Structure formats: C-alpha cells, structure tokens
Amino acid sequence: MRSNCALYIDVGYLLASAAVRVTGTSLRAGIQVEFPKLIDDLVRQAEELSGLPVLRVHWYDAAKNAVPDWGQGLIGELPKVKLRLGRIGLDGQQKGVDLRIGLDLVTHARNHVADIFYVVSGDDDLTEAVEEAQVQGVQVVILAVPNASGVPHAVSRHLLRAADQLEVVDETAIDRNVSRKAVTPRPVDKPGPKSAVPSPAEIAARVQQVAPPPTSVLAYSSSTGSKSVPSSAYIEVEGASDQIDAVAKKVADSVRRSATDSDLRDIIAGRPAIPSDVDRALLLDLSDTLEVYDLEDPLRFKLRERFWAYLADG
Fold it and tell me: Name one Pfam family in it (predicted).
C-alpha cells in the first residue's frame, strides 16, 4: 500500500498565531487570509518534510450549530480538504473542536490511513491523542506557527514532549498569505444630521464607568496551548500595568481598524460586555505576554478597563 502523510489543522490555533505574527494580537478579525494558497503551502511543506504525498487535509473550525458559513463551505470544497466543524456555544467559545481532532488522530492511526501525521496546533489537550496514535505506529509531528521572531508560538510543553518532532511553518507561507486587514473607510461628518458613528468623545462618555463582565474563563483556551508557568502564579496589577496597557491598546487598535461602522456601534452599545472574540484575544495576549496560564481577576478587570479607554481614545 502506498505511503502517505496527513495534515490536521486546528484553525483556531493557526489563525490566532498568524494574527500574532502579523498584527501583534491574536484577534482573528484583524487579519485577512488567502486560504487556498495557505493550505497549498502547508501541503507543500508537509510533502517536502516527509517525502510523501499528502492524503488529505483535515480542517478543524467551529460554526454556529456546526453549520458551515459561506467561507468555510468554500474551504470544504477545496481538493483533498475535509471540513470538520465543532460548535460555537452561547458564550462564544468553541465546543467539540479539540475532541474531533483527538478522535480523528486515534481513529486514523488505528486504520493506518497515513504514516506521518502533521498537526498544526499547540493544544495541550491533544497530548493523550498524540500518544495513542503513536502506539499504533504513526509518527506525529507538530507543525507550529512562528511568531514575529520565528519562534514557535503557544505550543504546550506536554504536547511538545509527546510529539515525535517539532517543525515550524515556513514563515513565507504566513507572510504572503496572511495580511493585516485594511483600514475600514469611515464617512466624513458633514453638516446636518448627526453621524451614526460615535465620535471619540461619545465613546469616552459611554465607557467612563466600566463594570467587569461577571463571567471568568481561562486566559489560554485549549485551542491555543498552555504556558509552563503554574496557574497559581500571582501577578500584581501595578507590576503589570505596562503590559496591560500595551495589550489593551493593540487589541483596541485592531478592533477600530477592522470593524465596520455597524460593528463598532454594536460593540459600544453592548458595553460593558466585550464581544467574545475580542475578549478572548485580550486574555490570550496578556497571558502570552505575562507567561501565565490563568489570569487573576484583578488583571482581567484592569485589562478590560484599559481596552475601553483605548477604544475611546481612538
């Protein structure tokens, strides 16, 4: 039987890490991606590394009710690409994506569908699935996205120890296929009826008093890996003020740059709640900056407060 390799791509990890490289923040909405070309480059790299043809690309993402949106549907129609969708929960978090990746790794290894599995992810939760696939005689290689310095971004130490090898995605594959989203044109205010887009002064008035959201989630979601620093590590807000400001400003700038007028109005109208994707980017970026897995509540509250302040200043 002909030997093959296979690609397993955690889209949440791929795009968040690529966004960090391109924009400095993990906010997916801040980037635009040439998906067919990016997938072709990943396939090409896997074949060059292994010396084997790629049997199939497994593309793991999430969608409302696990129903693909227009863009996901187009990706699923690409040659040799299998679309595998989890759900987006009421809290905006992905559900079932990691489970699908893990089950596929184990099932495909048992059925000997390929000799080498390339996994584009840094997720700690995949460690046991990787080890079980190896028991079945498959080599598992982690293909990590590089940050701006070329260093693998957000790969769990447990996953790294379990895998047979760590490779880094070719930097040119990211740089030529992932770009900062163009600035959204905004209408110039004219005499007459008041513009529907809030001015910086109006935004500042609305965010003057910020109450932190009642929910609390881990700073690092399972789709982005985990840091080696214990979750019990405690960092004072005062000692991290510069890092908090830097993260809040980058995310606020990315939101203002990429959001449509309607999106910006909705974000402001929903204060103090922050959209789940934006809040996730804030937490992930600060967690990455501080190298702490679980951010304490004072850090979270201050981070969200500074985000609103910088959004107003924009």
Answer: NYN
Q: pTM for this structure?
A: 0.77
Q: Which residues pair with 83 in a beta bridge?
A: 59
Instruction: Give residue for tokens 């965010």.
Output: 207
CB 17 within 8 A of CB 127: no
Name which of 41, 35, 18 is nearest 72 in CA terms. Answer: 35
User: What's the whole-number mean pLDDT along residues 252-262?
Assistant: 86
156 and 232 together in one domain: no
Rounded (10°) angle between helices 241-258 and 276-290: 150
CATH number for the domain that contains residue 139: 3.40.50.1010
pLDDT digits (tens, 9 = 90+) for 136-146: 999 999 999 99
- Domain span including residue 47: 5-180
User: Quick one: 265 and 122 in the same domain?
Assistant: no
CA–CA separation, 198 and 265 (whole Å)? 7
Cα separation, 41 vs 90, in Å, equals: 34
pLDDT tens for 212-238 read 333 333 333 434 444 444 444 457 787
Domains in the chain, number? 2
